[in-house]
From TrEMBL, chains A, B:
Transmembrane segments: none annotated. It comes from Georgenia daeguensis. SUPFAM superfamilies: OsmC-like. This is OsmC family protein.
Length: 196, 196
């Protein structure tokens, strides 16, 4: 198979020269690597709520390239007394780990000159509701295990393809947070009914 | 203000009798509290990938109430060499924490007979890309801090409203996973190019 220089530039849909230029730039000006991502959420009704994702800070400035917010609905399914207007929050965690690893797989493969034919993954998370329902507070609220299974096909050996997934895992922001946890600060501004 | 029994049943859009009946049922048959959530993701091109969320196991059976999958696109923004077809994986984490806490706030308030007027939150996450780009592997890949700020208005005192948020935080599955981490297993099935 012949690969033209244009194909090479856009290996796996990744603009490899721009990827390497970005890496070089951040290596030289490390403050450009500092990012702040943001979201705002509004309660709709019951367990239904909606998040808007738009601006973020990164590469030394407020990003102005997004012309509209991404809108994400979350709800509980009927069996959890919701109306199923969107995935539950815990399902979004499973999406986040698959998406983060797959972001990385495409980039790592492109940087290594490996053409991918297919990447697909399934994610399962086991969770008991006994803790979060307050029935047995000795049971943790969150997932006790998350399993991600990747199928990866590409123009490389099985060993090279697996190494791409492992490198992505080693560098994944979501994998890091889900396995090691992070500092989460919650603060509250409450506006009571003034007549009380 | 008069509250009819119908309003009371659907306090904050939460069907309170069904919520309490669900709690009672799981308390009596604790195996019903065992859930498995799932997602499947397909790489599209570059950092763009797409997750499908549909079936899950819970309350003793495979759930059959969802008639279509929820579809979630993830991508990197332009500054991170993507095409911005969706939020990044790390932005989905911010959505997940806001959504999970807000799911809980509506339920806890309803269970306590507190009518909510408004719940809104903003989330910020600070992250350095130096680790994930391989420029400084001493820097963690994930968020070093996530901050959630809630505005809550309702028919209760400020203290009662704040207590609703804190109870939701104490029982939140996503808060637990993001602060404590969990076990994440990644396995790979690689299909190499057979001609190599």
């Amino acid at each position: 198979m012949t690969t033209t220089s244009q194909d090479r530039a856009a290996m796996n849909g990744v603009d490899v020269p721009v990827l390497f230029a970005t890496l070089d730039l951040v290596r030289e000006q490390q403050e450009l690597g500092e990012f702040q991502f943001r979201a705002r959420n509004e309660w709709v009704s019951g367990t239904h709520n909606r998040t808007f994702v738009d601006g973020f800070y990164g590469a030394g400035q407020e990003d102005a390239t997004r012309d509209r917010p991404f809108v994400l609905d979350a709800d509980h399914p009927a069996v959890l007394v919701g109306q199923d207007h969107g995935p539950t929050a815990v399902e979004y965690l499973l999406h986040a780990i698959a998406a983060c690893l797959t972001h990385g797989i495409a980039n790592v493969a492109a940087a290594r000159g490996i053409e991918l034919h297919r990447v697909a993954s399934t994610v399962e998370g086991d969770i008991s509701l006994l803790g979060m329902l307050g029935i047995d507070t000795g049971v943790r609220n969150g997932y006790r295990q998350i399993r991600v299974h990747f199928e990866i096909e590409g123009d490389a050996t099985a060993e090279q393809l697996e190494a791409v997934v492992r490198r992505s895992q080693d560098r994944s922001a979501v994998y890091d947070v889900l396995t090691h946890g992070t500092d989460v600060v919650v603060d509250v501004h409450a506006s009571p009914d003034e007549t009380r």
